[in-house]
Amino acid sequence: MGIGLDVWAAGLSELMKPSVIMFLFLGVLIGTMIGALPGLSATMGIAIMTPITFWFDPTDGFAMLMGLWNAAIFAGGITAILINTPGTPASITQSFDGYTLYKRGRGGLALGINVIFSAIGGLISCAALILLATPIAKFTVTFNSAEYFMLALFGLSMMVAVSGGDVLKGLILGLAGILLSTIGLDPILGIKRFTFGNVNLLAGISFIPVMIGMFGIGEVMYQIFTRNREQEKKDIEARKVNLELGKVLPDKKEMKELLPRGIVSAMVATVIGAIPAAGGDIASIICWGNAKKLSKHPEEYGDGSVEGLAVSSAANNGVIGGAMTTMMTLGIPGDAVTAILIGSLTMYGMQPGIKMFTENAKFTTQIMALMVLANIAFLILGLLTAKVSAKVLNVAQPTVWAAVTILCVVGSYALNNNFFDVLIMFAAAVLGFLFKVYHFPTGPFILGILLGGMLESNMRRALVMSNGSYATFVTRPVSCVLLILVLITFLYPMIKAVRGKKKAGKSEK
Amino acid sequence: MKKLKADTIAGLICMAFGVFFLIMTALNPQMAFVATTSDGVPGGGFFPYILSVAIILMGGGLTVRGIKTEAEQYVDMTPENKKNMKVLLLMVAGLVVFLIAWKLTAPHFGNNAFMACVFLFEIYLNKLFERSWKFALIYAVIFTAFIYLVFNMGFSILFNA
Fold this sequence. Notes:
The structure holds two protein chains of two kinds.
Chain A lengths: L4 H11 L2 H19 L5 H12 L4 H26 L8 H48 L5 H17 L5 H15 L2 E2 L6 E2 L13 H19 L3 H12 L11 H23 L5 H15 L11 H25 L5 H12 L13 H25 L11 H20 L2 H19 L4 H24 L6 H4 L1 H32 L1
Antiparallel strand pairs in A: 1-2
Helix pairs in contact in A: 1-14, 2-4, 2-14, 3-4, 3-8, 3-13, 3-15, 4-5, 4-12, 4-14, 5-10, 5-12, 5-14, 6-7, 6-17, 6-19, 7-17, 8-15, 8-16, 10-11, 10-12, 11-12, 15-16
Chain B lengths: L2 E2 L2 H21 L18 H23 L6 E2 L2 H31 L1 H18 L4 H22 L7
Antiparallel strand pairs in B: 1-2
């Protein structure tokens, strides 16, 4: 098994179609706007655009999604630099240095560094995806139900890690997600579960409408609820100020100094991205923090450091390739966007995992190549439009809210021409809003809904094959190693939290 | 100042969610804990039973935690938040009315009814978000045309619910 050169050649030749290039650039353009507008995230953009792409040829559709995703992450840095507001969570550290650079009249250079190092980060992570995906996929050939169950459990155990410090709430939502994934026909016995006589529920809860609701209208509802009119006025004033941007491209000496740190940052971010549910925000904070520790000029970090900005930019786009590797080889989402992409592939009749490298190998090569092309496309577009990108920011939040609300309704209906999906989307929107208000992390819920089916069907299948013996999960080496990892992931944060409380109690005494 | 008490209410809702699924599982004789067809193998009710019980227990834990941490609060209901809440509720109510109107009118008037609903809903949203009549009307016309051109003309999707 493995993707041969002939498959690559066949896949790449199909990408040379004008429609693919057109949709790729369209995706980059939409992604740049989405990323540059505070309040719109890459996840929201992908969630809204996914139903639209179902009406395209799969290659065209994925060209648009890949362009949008990669560009949205890079463009999040534009607002971070120009108005000190991260456009996406991944660009939080870019505001630490980028905005100071802008105020010092080096905004052009900051925007240029953002584009160049985001592309470098993206390309390095794409290289990792291309080089590592096939060996990992080969390794999974030996997996059977026991390993897939443990793999799903490992993915779910990460929900503890991404619970934002509140393990209990993360666990509750993760379990609730798995419970909701049991709605529909039983995967082994075919009996109806929690369908309440509704035929729409026989196939379970549609995942993409849930994502559209949570990250679309749910997010809009939260933004309306937390609207701060005084801050809005300040932001509008800040946008009116057009400081001198200066040069965009760094000189050779600067590039030589920045490149090694950018590459290391991208590599670290790729590894972080491959960890289920660890996103660009985590990667950029880790990379920025560590780069500061290792820097010759740590005092400049947070105060207009070009190096700090380069490291952050490389990190947030470096995550993408890692997340895609986990998604395509193991079927486990690296972040919220890859979770939607799993749903998207499923709707195209493809199953992430080993089959992506056998039955759908050509399409897999196309996805990988599209990732590379997306980085090149936003590099070109980003450098050409760096000085006019500030204009995108002049769109008011309510204008975006009104558009997103209708697009969510239209998009969720367009998936299957089914009004029931709109109702699911609406329910998910209300839930998503409540989760945010009551500080419940949405990550575990999404992982639960997405991986619940994989978890249950593989566990029960493994037990059928072992005549009900649970020993099958520890006697198989890979399954056993995964079980140990699961236990560590579950127990470590709990032990840490208990220790922290004990320490706090002692210090109070 | 009125405050939204968070974890206690959330914990109780989680418990209610778990209890609902536990009762539904217990009421369905096909959803047995152990499969009746093969010994020792989990049945269709295995996951629902375990998960709903776990959610009830954890929801209980969250409720207790909420009661214990008296000072815990998530949202200060400031005058601005109250205003935001009003806008939010009106937005959700508008969305519900929009969906009901679409569902009721589309079978009789087809796709045109949906487009009319979109147009009116966009005006409503823009007015709710404190935009001028002129802006709201122009926005609604452009946006409705966009939906019509992309989804109706481009993808041949008919919104006849």
